Amino acid sequence: MSENVQRIEVEVAGGYAPAVVNLKQGVPxxxxxxxxxxxGCLDVVHSKDLHFETELPLNLPQTVAIDTQRAGExxxxxxxxxxxxxxxxx
Length: 90
What we know:
Elements: E1 6-12, E2 16-17, E3 20-23, E4 29-35, E5 44-47, E6 52-55, E7 62-66, E8 72-78, E9 84-89
Organism: Lacticaseibacillus paracasei subsp. paracasei Lpp122
Protein name: Copper-exporting ATPase
GO molecular function, one term: hydrolase activity
């Protein structure tokens, strides 16, 4: 993570690793999700709170921009809402 942009990588394989992403408020950020396993319902990741939904093709990194203007805790999950992760902005 640099001072100008926060870039986080999350591996998607039976869950999210890391499951909790910590971001600094007011600093532009992105999360790159890479699905490395075809098991389960993890072919989509979405967050109503953070306003994103993206398909996760196997082994193809997908990056979403995160608005860090509001502090708080925001959930993200798989397409079936069975696997969950969290973005913490402080």
